[in-house]
C-alpha cells in the first residue's frame, strides 16, 4: 500500500542506514533503474542516445524499459495535434524527418535492444499486471522520461527509493506540457532542466537537481529541445549515481508559486513566432 510520500521514504532509507552510513561493501553494487518513456525518434531518442552511451555500468543497471505511444492517444489524434501546432509547412517538414528516422531504424526500442535492455510492453503502466511485473523486477528507482501517462499511487509506491521524473522546465512555475515552448514564449534566458521526485500531484515532488540550457534571442524550439534532452541525460546520470551513494540533497517546492501549462494553441504559436523564434 502507498502510505508514505516519496521524499519521506527516501529520508527514512537514508536515516535508517540502508543507504547512507552503510559500509561500502554492504551497499548494493548497482542501482537498479526502470525507465518509462514514449517512442519518439526525433527528440526523446536523443536522451537515450546519450544516456545509454555514457552511464556507468559499474554503478547503474537498467532493469527494463517501457515504451508507450506519444501522448498515450490514437495516432490520428496525435497527427491532428501536430497539424494544429506546426502548421502546414512545418508539419510536412517534421513528418519528413520522422519518416526518415523510422526508415533508418533510429528508435528507443532499437537502442534498448542493441544494448540488451529488457522491454516491458504494456497498454497502461497503471494496470495491475504491469505493476506486478515491476514488483517482480524490484527496481530501486523508476525514471519517467516523457512518460505519456500519469503514474498512480500504486505504481509510485513500488520502487525502493521512489519514482523520479526529468522535466525540461523550472518547477513549479512551468508545470505541465511543453515546458520548453512556454519558457521560450515567455522570454526566459534559459530553459531549466529539472530532475525531481514524483508525487501524486503532477510535477510537485522534491527537486533533486537542476541545470540551465541557454535560449538565444532568436532560437528554434527544435534546437532547445534537442539540447535539453542531451544535457538532461547527463544530469540524470549524476543524480542516479548520487542516489546510489546516498548523497542526494532534496529541495521542496513552494507550490504557492506554481502554474500549469497545457499543450500550446495555434495562437500561442503565433506569439512564439512574433518573438522571433522558430519551431524548426
Strand content: 15-25%
Tell me the Rg in angstroms. Answer: 19 Å
How many individual helices?
9
**Widest sheet: strand ordering:** 2-1-3-4-6-7
The fold-level CATH name is: Rossmann fold
Order of helices and strands: HEHEHHHEHEEHEEHEH
**Major beta sheet summary:** 6 strands, mixed
What does this structure look like?
The protein has 280 residues and is an alpha/beta fold. It has one domain: Rossmann fold (3-Layer(aba) Sandwich). The protein is built from nine helices and eight strands. It has helices at 6-15, 44-54, 75-104, 108-114, 128-137, 153-156, 179-185, 221-245, 266-274, and strands at residues 31-38, 60-68, 141-145, 163-167, 175-176, 190-197, 207-214, 260-261. The strands form two sheets. The chain has a six-stranded mixed beta sheet. A two-stranded parallel ribbon has the order 5-8. Helix 6 links the parallel strand 3 and strand 4 (163-167). The protein starts with 5 loop residues before the first helix and ends in a 6-residue tail after the last helix.
Sequence-ordered SSE layout with sheet pairings:
Layout lengths: L5 H10 L15 E8 L5 H11 L5 E9 L6 H30 L3 H7 L13 H10 L3 E5 L7 H4 L6 E5 L7 E2 L2 H7 L4 E8 L9 E8 L6 H25 L14 E2 L4 H9 L6
Parallel strand pairs: 1-2, 1-3, 3-4, 5-8
Antiparallel strand pairs: 4-6, 6-7
Helix pairs in contact: 2-8
Amino acid at each position: 500500500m502507498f502510505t508514505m510520500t516519496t521524499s519521506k521514504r527516501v529520508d527514512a532509507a537514508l536515516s535508517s542506514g540502508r543507504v547512507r552510513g552503510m559500509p561500502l561493501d554492504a551497499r548494493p553494487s548497482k542501482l537498479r533503474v526502470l525507465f518509462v518513456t514514449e517512442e519518439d525518434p526525433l527528440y526523446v531518442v536523443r536522451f537515450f542516445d546519450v544516456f545509454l552511451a555514457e552511464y556507468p555500468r559499474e554503478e547503474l543497471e537498467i532493469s527494463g524499459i517501457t515504451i508507450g505511444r506519444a501522448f498515450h492517444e490514437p495516432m490520428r489524434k496525435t497527427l491532428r495535434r501536430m497539424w494544429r501546432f506546426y502548421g502546414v509547412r512545418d508539419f510536412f517538414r517534421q513528418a519528413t524527418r520522422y519518416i526518415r528516422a523510422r526508415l533508418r531504424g533510429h528508435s528507443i526500442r532499437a537502442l534498448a535492444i542493441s544494448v540488451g535492455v529488457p522491454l516491458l510492453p504494456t497498454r497502461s503502466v497503471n494496470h495491475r499486471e504491469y505493476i506486478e511485473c515491476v514488483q517482480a523486477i524490484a527496481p530501486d528507482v523508476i525514471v519517467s522520461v516523457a512518460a505519456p501517462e500519469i503514474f498512480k499511487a500504486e505504481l509510485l509506491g513500488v520502487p525502493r527509493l521512489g519514482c523520479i521524473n526529468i522535466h525540461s522546465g523550472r518547477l513549479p512555475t512551468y508545470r505541465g506540457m511543453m515546458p520548453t515552448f512556454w519558457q521560450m514564449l515567455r522570454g526566459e534566458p534559459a530553459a531549466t532542466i529539472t530532475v525531481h521526485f514524483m508525487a501524486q500531484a503532477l510535477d510537485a515532488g522534491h527537486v533533486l537537481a537542476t541545470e540551465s540550457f541557454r535560449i538565444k534571442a532568436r532560437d528554434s524550439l527544435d534546437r532547445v529541445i534537442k539540447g535539453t534532452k542531451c544535457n538532461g541525460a547527463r544530469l540524470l546520470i549524476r543524480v542516479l549515481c548520487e542516489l546510489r551513494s546516498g548523497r542526494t540533497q532534496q529541495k521542496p517546492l513552494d507550490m504557492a508559486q506554481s502554474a500549469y501549462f497545457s499543450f500550446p494553441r495555434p495562437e500561442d504559436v503565433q506569439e512564439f513566432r512574433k518573438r522571433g523564434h522558430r519551431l524548426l
